[in-house]
Design a protein that fits this description.
It is a single chain. This protein is mostly beta strands. The chain has 2 helices and 6 strands. It has a 6-stranded antiparallel β-sheet with strand order 1-2-4-5-6-3, covered by helices on one side. A hairpin with a 5-residue loop joins β5 and β6. Helix content is about 15%, strand content about 40%.
Length: about 150
């Protein structure tokens, strides 16, 4: 049974602009690099991420792709910029059954407030397991909870 304090609202403060939030930490994501509109993140396949077929749950994989795209975008926009994923298309090409997967993301600005992302999720054998495209929209408001100096 859940306690009501677990249900939010929650206020999350990140120490750095390009940093994993609590959900990404829960999934064991690591930011290898995020610069110039590109990002590389990794995530291990843990038993808890398996579906009934003993393969990595698609939701966990897509979470890695979305986070990689976000980090690539954060490397191009000013700290405190607020944005959201407005569209995402996913192609599952092969199952992930073990090891550490890597997300390679690139973003490009398409219009004043629209950015497009492309992400490949690859296995340890460097085989593409998932391809993701996404669209992000920049909000006109700015975040106010970013730490000083970010």
């Amino acid at each position: 049974m859940k306690h009501t304090e677990d249900l939010g609202p929650h206020e999350i403060h990140l120490d750095r602009w390009i940093e994993c939030a609590p959900f990404e930490d829960l999934l064991g994501m690591e930011i290898v690099r995020a610069e110039n509109g590109e990002a590389v993140l990794t995530m291990p396949f843990r038993r808890q991420y398996a579906n009934g077929g003993s393969i990595m749950h698609g939701g966990a994989t897509v979470s890695l792709a979305d986070t990689a795209a976000v980090m690539a975008l954060k490397s191009r926009v000013a700290p405190g910029t607020h944005f959201g994923t407005t569209d995402m298309a996913i192609r599952f090409l092969r199952p992930v059954i073990q090891g550490v997967i890597t997300a390679r993301a690139q973003v490009e600005q398409q219009e004043e407030r629209l950015w497009h992302a492309r992400v490949e999720i690859v296995t340890e054998a460097d085989e593409v397991a998932v391809e993701v495209t996404a669209v992000f929209k920049i909000s006109r408001r700015r975040l106010t909870t970013i730490a000083e100096g970010c």
